[in-house]
Design goal:
This protein is globular. It is built from eleven helices and 13 strands. Helices cover 41% and strands 17% of the residues. It binds uridine-5'-diphosphate-4-deoxy-4-fluoro-alpha-D-galactose.
Length: 339
């Protein structure tokens, strides 16, 4: 069964392609390589033994999308990762984010309608909950006004999907990710941030390897046990596996509604200092960090209630924080050896 994975050479996409192949799905990737490299398909094949098909074009190009679908009308499902994802950049370049993230979704869904493709899994984010009033946060929690254009593209995309499933044969599952970190156990694929990382985990590993001098911990005066902000970090391989279960659920017609929404988190919150402690424990290194002021736009704390995903998808995040930080560190060391 052929699955289209948009953004399949990216961080979460590449891990998902590996898990899809392990379950016997045929994968075709569409990616414009704006934040990734075509070498990833070889790394994927080193893990799985299968080179996934890769077509390099931009999903905002309607004609190219239509042409792609006309040549691939045997696709049974789509996992749509392709999107820009840098929160800070989206604040400075909102139109870039709206055009890219929204237009590509519309083109993909039009292609589905034209070609009778019924199943789409969409990459959403816990950012839609903002700072939740109740923790842990479940899927019924209200959607808060988005903190950034990036977050808004996730909210708008969920709305576009909701309206489209009502008026068509399309079924959708939106997966709301918490904070994916870590890398594949082979250290052949992982996160490849361009330039200075915005996110905590790559900043930690780049500091430890010597690319960055010092990690800034943004704020230690939050109303949390150690004063630093809390997130629900989830291993990217656990996250990837949930996508395979979701697409399988759609193809097997086991959905309870034509749009389903699931939280993908572990249910455990870790503070920034706890993540640093875990990293120091697994690497045996002392990390150079300093406490600085809060980062604008950061929420205090969020972690998932994954009960609905656990029960309905039969999926549970398996890996703990030390496995996450250890795999991220192995990946960073692999990257430094390549240079
Ligand atoms: N942090 C630091 N120093 C850094 C980087 C991050 O202290 O150099 C802290 C942040 O302040 C935050 C925590 O580490 O408390 C996690 O920060 P990340 O940037 O790794 O992750 P965020 O929770 O800010 O963002 C993530 C995704 C977004 C998504 C958002 C939703 O990267 O795509 O969750 O909440 F929108």
């Amino acid at each position: 069964m052929k699955i289209l994975v948009t953004g399949g050479t990216g961080y979460i996409g590449s891990h998902t392609v590996v898990e899809l192949q392990a379950k016997g799905f045929e994968v075709v990737i569409v990616d414009n390589l704006s934040n990734s490299s075509s070498d990833i398909v070889e790394k994927i094949s080193e893990i799985s033994g299968i080179i996934p098909k890769l077509e390099i074009f931009d999903l905002t190009n309607k004609d190219l999308v239509a042409d792609f679908f006309s040549r691939n009308n045997d696709i049974v499902g789509i996992i749509h990762f392709a999107a820009y994802k840098a929160v800070g950049e989206s604040v400075n370049k909102p139109l870039l984010y709206y055009r890219n993230n929204i237009e590509s979704l519309i083109n993909v869904m039009e292609g589905m309608q034209t070609n009778g493709i019924e199943n789409i899994v969409f990459s959403s984010s816990c950012t839609v909950y903002g700072q939740p009033d109740v923790l842990p946060v479940n899927e019924q929690a209200p959607i808060k006004i988005a903190e950034s254009p990036y977050g808004n593209t996730k909210q708008i995309s969920e709305e576009i999907i909701q309206d489209t499933v009502k008026s068509s044969n399309i079924n959708a599952i939106a997966l709301r990710y918490f904070n994916p970190i870590g890398a594949h156990e082979t250290a052949l694929i992982g996160e490849l941030p361009l330039g200075v990382p915005n996110n905590l985990m790559p900043f930690i590993t780049q500091t430890a390897i010597g690319i960055r001098k010092c990690l800034s911990v943004f704020g230690d005066d939050y109303p949390t046990p150690d004063g630093t902000a809390i997130r629900d970090y989830i291993h990217v391989v656990d996250l990837a596996k949930a996508h395979v279960i979701a697409i399988d659920r759609m193809i097997s017609k086991n959905m309870k509604d034509d749009l389903e929404i699931f939280n993908l988190g572990t249910g455990n919150g870790y503070s920034v200092l706890e993540v640093i402690n875990s990293f120091e424990r697994v690497s045996g290194l002392k990390l150079n960090y300093q406490i600085v002021g809060r980062r604008e736009g950061d929420i205090i704390q969020v972690w998932a209630d994954p009960t609905y995903s656990n029960e309905e998808l039969g999926w549970k995040a398996e890996m703990g924080i030390d496995e996450m930080t250890n795999s991220a560190w192995n990946w960073e060391q692999f990257l430094s050896k390549k240079k």
